[in-house]
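#lab-general

N.A. 3:47 PM
ok so I finally got the sequence cleaned up, no stray characters, all 707 residues accounted for. can someone with queue access submit it? mine expired

B.Y. 3:52 PM
send it over

N.A. 3:53 PM
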Amino acid sequence: MLDRPLPERSQIHRRLPNQRWQIYSQKTDLAQKLAASINLSPIISQLLINRGIETPAQAKAFLEPESIVLPSPLEEFPDLAMSVELLQEAIASQSKIAICGDYDADGMTSTALLLRSLRALGAQVDYAIPSRMHEGYGINKRIIEEFHSEGVKLILTVDNGISAYEPIARAKELELKVIVTDHHDIPQQLPPADAILNPKLIAEFSPYRGVAGVGVAYILAVCLAQQLGETSGLIQPMLELFTLGTIADLAPLTGVNRRWVKRGLKHLPKSKLPGVQALIQIAGVQAKEAGVQGCGGAEEQRSKGAGEKTFHSSKSLKPEDIGFRLGPRINAVGRIGDPQTVIDLLITDDMGIALIKAMQCEQTNTSRQQMCEEIEQEAIAYVETQYITSLQQDRVLVVVQPDWHHGVIGIVASRLVERYGVPVFIGTYEDEGHIRGSARGIPEFHVFEALEYCRDLLGKFGGHKAAGGFSLPAENLELVRSRLIDFANQCLEPQHLKPLLKIDAQANFHQINQQLFQQLNALHPCGIDNPDPVFWTPNVQVIEQQIVGKGHIKVTLAQIIDTQQYTIKAIAWRWRDYYPLPQRVDVAYKLRENTFNGNTTIELELQGLRLTTASTQIFYTSPPNPLRTTFQYQQRQYICGIYQNNSLPELRIKNPEGKILVMYPGRTIGLLGTTREAAIEVDVSQPQYDSIIQAALQALSYINAES
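B.Y. 4:20 PM
back already:
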């Protein structure tokens, strides 16, 4: 029986998260073998396999990143030796050095890192950051001319410069030396700099390949300090700034990033940098005992207020502390405030100044949150009236409106991607003749390549696969929209137009406990390219739900296992639009700890939700004995049944030739063959399999209802 009449269920379905679920194939035998070799549970081994780690050697390198013997960065970056030499010469001659940074967390932490380290090494160094509102991203001719008039001899770009051909050509005309340090995608024409450091120019298999702008700055600063023999007291502060910038910029936590971030997270709570301590205090971040925090959720980071905390050397932060609490406060200043506030915060040695600057960051972040909410609602209203019927055909969303703050539209773009599942290019008018915007993509869409496809219609642009920034003459807007639609239709299929949720494994509620949560600690630190594990549970009941805070849903879920009911609490961030949730659902989630009144429990942080359909429920409501029937499909007779295999239900469909298709609820990978031993894996979501599976489930549902 359906829980509710069909029209009501249809209305609810329209309010569910618009997602496509991709559930990893469970490689049970390999997981068991790997678990035995590394002395971890099979579930952790399966999570490693999902991340491409299948051998004991790969597992050791991942679980113990300090055990890796790293190649020298001087061997990996062709221009690194030249960059160190240019800086050495400038320090020795006391020539003026100027840093051109960027106004995001990566750019500001990079700028602060190089300012602190170069000044400590005796350099005469200052900095400039272009105005987000008036100039946009990256070094420009005005900054070049200004540096020249101030007597600067060496320019050092951080987190920008790889696409700045004309400004750097102007610097060379003025006989200035230029070192470009950047991590954005490589344009068709490199700038004429004296040295270029960019991980996109080195070997793809290099452990340094994934560093963000702050990672390039860190490598340069460390190599310079080592060359000058002045590393004492410098490395740890630089590592802390590297950790802040790397996580805030969503850099992949693989290779050296994983190694250095894991180390940096332990140093941050006991940081000697006043700015870091002040930011931690104002943000109300609570460090956890090292070795017992998992990769779980972030309610603490989202809900706590400011307050001074006491930290001990055995405690560590989590990436979520930076991603949800520290990073946004830094980024907010770059978005709608003055980046100098953050630079002053991170380079000062005065705790009083640091606290003042941290409070300014806090106030700016509050304003940024309010601004984001307003613009997001305006953008949704605009899309719903103008473009909602054409999204499936266009496969990309281009939204441009006046009077939006350029500093926050990138965040709004990300939220629109979440909501509509298509790449989003969002912009606002700088004046009547010019538009500037931000772009965010989906896994199958390359933002930088899309911008390259529109090169002749744009002004400045840059970015990478997932995100980018651009400007254009207002008169070109419709041409750019048309060009982006053309590009999107070349690389996207209709099935791509839902946000992709990757799910690691199925879990039942009786398996969720402190022991499982602690085992997940082996994956720490989690982040980009090493995501928090996502589990799913089918056919659960929503027994309590309420709206809390700013549009979150707090729920109690129940699962019946062998006639016993298991309940667990969950939180769904920003799911106000989906309230009330249906009564019977499949849920996807991360695990999180919640401590209240001294009691710590494991709860769920919902990532996805879908209706448990009548055809899916049959896996869990059919009699203990196999449920079998025959059915006709395309004028052929088939036999089908639901059986228990190691306590897991499976559907078997047998054709007249004796070949059997086996599928499992919620999984996209099934088996096809005359025997289980000889069967091959097939994607049962493909139309040729899905159609016959639906026919079989419909036949079985009818038989089950009759019985």
